[in-house]
Amino acid sequence: MCSDSAQNELFRLWQNQxxxxxxxxPEQIRERMRRLKRKLFWRDVKIGIICAGETAWFAYxxxxxxxPVFQVGMGLIIVGMTYVAGQLLMSNRRRNxxxxxxxxxxxxxxIDFYRGELQHQRDFHRGFWFWSRLIALFPGLxxxxxxxxxxxxxxxxxxxxxxGTIVTxxxxxxxxxxxxxxxxxxxxxxxxxxxxxx
Length: 198
Prior knowledge:
Helices cover 87% and strands 0% of the residues. By secondary structure, the protein is mainly alpha-helical. The chain has one domain (24-197). Residues 103-107 have low confidence and may be disordered.
């Protein structure tokens, strides 16, 4: 066993050691930016394909099913999908403009630029951006679902559509809140680094 003086000496050495520097290099930030850019590219591609596919499918349904209420619901879904696609295009355009304005990344400036990108993505998955996407899709899905329930009360189709809408919206809220928290954690990590660096 160690004597009290040896323990005190070890404790003193442990307390007086220089703090470890949190080091993040501009190259690490560039790599994180590349990963974020790749992730956002594939997200935009997937959502773009979904929007285009659903728009084509619902346009086909409008042409084939000649029920005015159903056609209105499908038209509202197409408008909602167009709004979602427009939001993605606006977000992508904003990223391109800020990337071009940022020029070469280096030092503290690259951290601020990366933080701005993370903040934009966090805001995309919460607040106005997110809720406006849900609100844009809600009327069309609601009209179609309740049309099915009222028109065919003994059929499960309308009930399945209404339940599917509720489950999809609940899942979208959960997934987007989780993504926003993930971006916030990354922002907090950058804040810890900058506080330690100062």
